[in-house]
Amino acid sequence: MLNTAGGITGGDRFTIGASVDRGQLVMTTQAAERAYRAKEGAGQVTTHLTVGPEGRLHWLPQETILFDGSALKRRLDADLHGDAAALFVETVLFGRLAMGETSPEVDYREDWRIRRDGRLIYADALRISGDSGTLLAPVAVANGARAVASVVYAAPDAEALADRARDLLPEHAGLSLISHDLLAVRMVAADGFDLRAGLVPLLKTLARAELPKCWML
């Protein structure tokens, strides 16, 4: 996927939709997304994904970078049917460290809703609004990390892969096996480079495949 606008700012609205039945679909982005300073309102990105029986979907966008003064609402809705398998990742970087943005002021909201056969199996909401450095500093929150990733794997083999996936996790990450066919991971890191170093082995294991080449550049 390519955002020809070059980034997201206040008032922008993006909607992404995709579906797969008996087959496999891998979706990624050409480069990192950027959320610029918002003068009026928040930019919104809404994603709707559907996976039918015997289908498999990998939702693997690259990082979203939140600039100082940015406001972004991101929502992911997924409907799985039968034995559908899906791997989802969303990654956010707070500020541009190379530009000295170590504690950007942001308003970031992320909501997930995943259903299987119409039943809600996963819901998650994250909001960081204000001075991100201060909000992420407590040990019980992110211990000063500037990069955060959320990973969900919903598939019949989730339980079988859980121990292998857990063994791959870096120090600042945790895995929860929610049910036999659903696991979730939260990972934090000092920067995007360290976060990706922890994510790539995990995603390759859960995907049972190599990642898109843009992830390896």
TrEMBL record:
GO terms for cellular component: cytoplasm. Signal peptide: none annotated. GO terms for molecular function: nickel cation binding. InterPro entries: UreD. It is found in: Cytoplasm. Coiled coil: none annotated. It comes from the Bacteria. It holds the Pfam family UreD. Keywords: Chaperone, Cytoplasm, Nickel insertion. UreD, UreF and UreG form a complex that acts as a GTP-hydrolysis-dependent molecular chaperone, activating the urease apoprotein by helping to assemble the nickel containing metallocenter of UreC. The UreE protein probably delivers the nickel. Required for maturation of urease via the functional incorporation of the urease nickel metallocenter. Belongs to the UreD family. This is Urease accessory protein UreD. It comes from Donghicola tyrosinivorans.
